[in-house]
Prior knowledge:
The protein has 150 residues and is an alpha+beta fold. The chain has 2 helices and 8 strands; from the N terminus they run ββββββαβαβ. The protein starts with 9 loop residues before the first strand and ends in a 30-residue tail after the last strand. The structure holds zinc ion.
Amino acid sequence: xxxxxxxxxxxxxxxxxxxxxxxxxxxxxxxxxxxxxxxxxxxxxxxxxxxxxxxxxxxxxxxxxxxxxxxxxxxxxxxxxxxxxxxxxxxxxxxxxxxxxxxxxxxxxxxxxxxxxxxxxxxxxxxxxxxxxxxxxxxxxxxxxxxxxx
Length: 150
Ligand SMILES: [Zn+2]
């Protein structure tokens, strides 16, 4: 479902250093640092250093990428949810979507239920990069795994 393209109120509010990329607010949500390599992409640092993610806007779609709550002890405490709710506030009229690793699927399903995002786009199994994650990387019945397998 495509929605109409709407202009976001993007305002430059500062820079970390003189030559650093601009930090902008989007619809009043502070802390989007321009990802200068790509157009319409930002690191969301509004909840740094606890959590971060990358936001990529394309027309009336917004992809959330690389979501990370940095410290293990900060996980499962609502920090990720709060950050995704920020992104929704910044892009209230965009279709927000993610591709999710298998171990994060339950989290994203909750985000869809709550309306913080609109859809999970990968219905297929997608393992995360952490080869110690037993959800994404179940031990094979033989007990053998390829070295560096993902
Ligand atoms: Zn995983």
